[in-house]
Write the structure tokens for this entry.
Amino acid sequence: MTGAEPVCLIDVRTPGEYFTAHVPGARLLPLDDLDAAAFRRERNGDHSPVYVLCQTGSRARRAIDKLAKAGLEACVLVEGGTQAWIDAGLPVTRGPSRVLPLMRQVQVAVGSLSALGALLALTVNPFFAAIPLVTGCGLLIAGLTGFCGLALVLAKMPWNKSSDTHSNSCCTKESK
């Protein structure tokens, strides 16, 4: 591959995360909306690598699994994702989005639920201590496995969706 050929780079984060900051030329295909079979058809027999990234890597791994099941085998995980790209000082396209990154939304939700549960356990009924216990266990599981169910739920929220998904054609063969 020469430097003049376009690279197929897909970003599987939420639209809010993408519009806040993304790698220039990356195509937004949110993991929740990723139709791997349709994407494979779009590729029109192109067997060049598809580079997949998210914020740190876990959603990109799941996207690669979906793409592989649809028959795309030349998928490459961009290690460390967008955050590693930013940390390396590489160019980033920043947009006007005011949506918090997904992991910060998780932190706000878990922190709020834990504080509320502890306050209710101290003032109303000790059984409310189950709330911080459950949220703490959820964080433990997310940390150990890389799977965060709350992040999946939050990704489906309206503020993390957008009708403008920058459907550029970096990953499709164009007929000239």
Q: What stands out?
A: DSSP finds seven helices and six strands in the chain. Residues 102-123 form the longest helix (22 residues). Residues 8-98 form a domain with the Oxidized Rhodanese; domain 1 fold (CATH 3.40.250.10). The longest strand covers residues 8-11.
